[in-house]
Design goal:
Catalyzes both the phosphorylation of dihydroxyacetone and of glyceraldehyde. This is Dihydroxyacetone kinase. This protein has three domains: 137 residues, 3-Layer(aba) Sandwich (Rossmann fold); 80 residues, no CATH class; 210 residues, Serine Threonine Protein Phosphatase 5, Tetratricopeptide repeat, CATH 1.25.40. It has 17 helices and twelve strands.
């Protein structure tokens, strides 16, 4: 009935006749909107670098209280004043890793530095581009006194995270550029704090200043105005507490402005009731995205029977040297270095040769090193365990990268080992301030790898390692337990960790 009726529409560009006219952002906008409408979904289309921080609990609202828009992407919490585990950190990286990379911002405490660096190496091995930025802003301890360990991380970390969070949100910086920007802030950062009492752990007896009740602790102890009368804080003249605060602030400002501190950025001095914030409860609520890495298309293959024979021989050599290394460590340490190494060697023999937990049909050296690193992490305590694990994970990651540059399934060559070992050494150097001359395992590891880099034979590299071990006898200790023993003990024995590494290399390489 309408066939004779005609309808006209104005002349329009039919290509533009859409409710949404910008097709360049349509998909990303739609996905982002879907995630906003459904709290169980997370949109992962952004190219920005994600930022993760963390450390021991007891400092709330850090770190979990700083998760949010323009700040942290996630936070990892350990127990009270204790670093989170490598597994916690690595799991967090895998959940919130950005397509442009992930930056771990941490405070300069030994446990945090080692665990976060080890987690970063494991994350890189799994395919996540990850870097670590360490904040050391406490100027209450001079640079000379802080020595190799460096200054502690304090409240200045919040400023670092805020600046980097804002930069990352813009999505214009690469991971390397963001990390460099963070280093610039850290290098111009100074923080100093004050406390009326020592910090204490919840549930444990408190330790008062006792004979120092009239002091406020600001870097060094002060005695500005008597604060306590009996058990109650009093004001001697109605103004005593105000005078105390003024004097404390003056001392803090002097510390910030001292030549030993770095001029530039500074944090406003603040005085707390004790060394840290109260133990309030905060929680991290984030949607999670699991990410898995695929098996590389190319591999570096090792003669597995030959490699297993080397590994078994090295473990047996370490076990045989257990008592000797412990005897050395009893002089300059806790007396358990040999036991720790031998326990790990026995665990490797148990897992690989008795239980047969590791099986490989293709001889992929990367997978084997990952397995060994896990055994080390689970069985070797303390700093040594973290450093060995960092080295093994970095070694595996470097070999994987080398394998991707080569034709599929290539037999590993000497130059591959040397290149990967050099990169693993650099990873260890990023995790510890120890260097040659500090009476540590580095006095063996560094000359051994450097000799190989310079074209030396394996036998010559082992000789360089032995010379490094001998050089530690009588050497001043800069790090570790040996720092606290009388200097005359240093000349009696070489560094136990250096001795253990030489035995390991001799057994592994059969020299």
């Amino acid at each position: 009935m309408y066939k004779d009726r005609h309808y006209w529409l104005p002349e329009v560009d039919m290509a533009a006749k859409h409710f949404i006219t910008d097709g360049t952002t349509f998909v990303q906008d739609a996905l982002h909107g879907l995630a906003l409408a459904n709290p169980s979904l997370r949109h992962d289309g952004d190219k920005a670098v994600t930022i993760i921080s963390g450390g021991g609990a007891g400092h709330e609202p850090s770190f979990v209280g700083l998760v949010g828009d323009g700040l942290l992407s996630a936070a990892v919490s350990g127990s009270i004043f204790a670093s989170p585990s490598v597994h916690q950190i690595q799991s967090t990286i895998s959940r919130v890793a950005g397509s442009a990379g992930t930056l771990l911002v941490i405070m300069n405490y030994t446990g945090d530095v080692l665990h976060f660096h080890l987690a970063a190496e494991k994350a890189r091995l799994a395919g996540f581009d990850t870097s670590v930025l360490v904040v050391g802003d406490d100027v209450s301890v001079g640079r000379r006194k802080s020595g190799k360990v460096g200054r502690r991380g304090l409240a200045g970390t919040v400023l670092v995270e805020k600046v980097l969070g804002a930069l990352a949100q813009q999505g214009k910086m690469t991971l390397h550029e963001l990390c460099k920007a963070g280093e610039d802030v850290v290098n111009n950062l100074a923080t100093v704090g004050a406390a009326l009492d020592h910090v204490h752990i919840v549930g444990k007896p408190t330790t008062d200043f006792t004979d120092r009740v009239d002091q406020v602790e600001v870097a060094a102890r002060l005695k500005p105005t008597r604060l306590y009368s009996g058990t109650f804080m009093t004001s001697l003249d109605g103004k005593g507490f105000s005078i105390t605060l003024l004097k404390a602030n003056s001392e803090m400002l002097e510390a910030l402005d001292a030549p030993a501190s770095t001029p530039g950025w500074s944090i406003t001095p603040r005085i707390g009731a004790n060394g840290t914030e109260g133990g309030g409860k905060t929680s991290l609520g984030r949607s999670h995205q699991e990410t898995s890495s695929t098996k590389p298309t190319s591999q570096l293959i090792v003669d597995e029977r030959y490699f297993l024979a080397m590994l078994k021989r090295a473990c047996e050599v370490i076990i045989a040297a257990e008592a000797e290394i412990d005897r050395f460590d009893a002089v300059v340490g806790d007396g358990d270095c040999g036991s720790t190494l031998a326990r790990t060697a026995r665990a490797i023999l148990q897992e690989v040769f008795i239980k047969g937990q590791y099986t490989s049909e293709d001889g992929d050296i990367v997978h084997f090193l990952e397995f060994l690193a896990l055994v080390v992490e689970n069985n070797m305590d303390g700093t040594s365990g973290a450093l060995y694990a960092i080295f093994l994970n970095a070694l595996a990651g470097s070999l994987r990268a080398i394998g991707k540059r080569l034709p599929k399934q290539c037999l590993i060559q000497r130059q591959n080992w040397v290149e990967a070992s050099s990169e693993a050494l650099q990873a260890v150097c990023q995790a510890t301030p120890a260097r040659v001359g500090d009476r540590t395992v580095m006095d063996v590891l560094d000359p051994f790898i450097t000799s190989l880099q310079n074209g030396a034979t394996v036998a010559a590299a082992i000789d360089a390692a032995r010379e490094g071990r001998e050089s530690t006898k009588g050497m001043s200790a800069s790090l570790g337990r040996a720092v606290y023993v009388p200097e005359e003990e240093w000349s009696r024995v070489p560094d136990p960790g250096a001795v253990g590494l030489v035995y390991l290399l001799e057994g592994l390489l059969g020299v």
